[in-house]
Amino acid sequence: MVKIGLQIKANLEHIEELYTSHPDYTFSLKLKCLNCGESSEKWHGITESETFQTKIGKSETHYLAKCKLCGRENSLDIIEGSNDKYTKEDQERFKTIVIFDCRGIEPVDFSPGEGWIAKAEESGKVFNDVDLNEKEWVDYDEKLKESVGVYDLESQFIKIK
Ligand SMILES: [Zn+2]
């Protein structure tokens, strides 16, 4: 069991906070099997509000699949309460926005996709349908009379001790 944090870094233009629509946001991850080293090109969707029943006991998990190569059953969970916001103060550095509890697998790539929420500074306007598929997003805040945006989104994984 390994805890892995997903960190993001971005430039925010007139945006106070950027966060996911947790618990319904779907993290798109590429996963690597730690038993055989197989890492598939397929994206897997992991959503905190969706769980799978494990075969043993009453336990539930957010991701459960057999590795196509070695057949081992691997699972992954979003740690409850680990979600965090990326704020203006966090700019130019990586910040952990969620922690995964990994059993037999590790995430190797992340696609931010849709389902982000951005809150504008001063006006407080909330943009509910921020699409970060292109790793950037731009809109206009009529109250601020300024364009708002998220640019140069990067991500990385870190092991949490
Ligand atoms: Zn495997």
From TrEMBL:
Keywords: Metal-binding, Zinc
UniProt entry tagged with the keyword Transferase: no
Zinc is among the record's keywords: yes
One Pfam family from the record: CXXC_Zn-b_euk
GO molecular function, one term: zinc ion binding
Source domain of life: Eukaryota
InterPro entries the record matches: CXXC_Zn-binding_euk
Family, as annotated: Belongs to the UPF0587 family.
Protein name listed in UniProt: UPF0587 protein
The species this protein was found in: Asbolus verrucosus (Desert ironclad beetle)
